[in-house]
């Protein structure tokens, strides 16, 4: 269920420390998670040590997007998991070498299938910076609907940026 012929979504492994370190410490992505400083390998190792926690306990799930040879391509998350209201946020980041090749679309579809079919969620939501045209196009292509805008929500490099709020409802219920 969490794989197809091109990619698989798998749990974080101890061997992923260097990949996680490289992704989390790319300053051009810090605005996505409100990060203000680099992560040490020690802190990321502690995170990996806790990655086995169940989504119902941790309220989040981070999976590695990997090709069939198990090379990591990126990360995909469910966060703010709320089983009572049957919703979660979704985040994705692909290493720049793998962007624009269809891996993101495939990974999101696999994660949506898991969220809707296994976790029985009613909705998944994403927030996207108004300047991130590629992500906006991708999520709209996947059936996410724009439901709101937070004006001047994020401040980066001397400018304020609005943030869009998208959601996808599982109409199977």
TrEMBL record:
PANTHER family: GNAT-FAMILY ACETYLTRANSFERASE, SPERMIDINE N(1)-ACETYLTRANSFERASE. Pfam families: Acetyltransf_3. It comes from the Bacteria. It comes from Psychroflexus salarius. Keywords: Transferase. GO terms for molecular function: acyltransferase activity, transferring groups other than amino-acyl groups. Gene3D superfamilies: 3.40.630.30. Residues 7-166 form the N-acetyltransferase domain. The keyword 4Fe-4S does not apply. This is Diamine N-acetyltransferase.
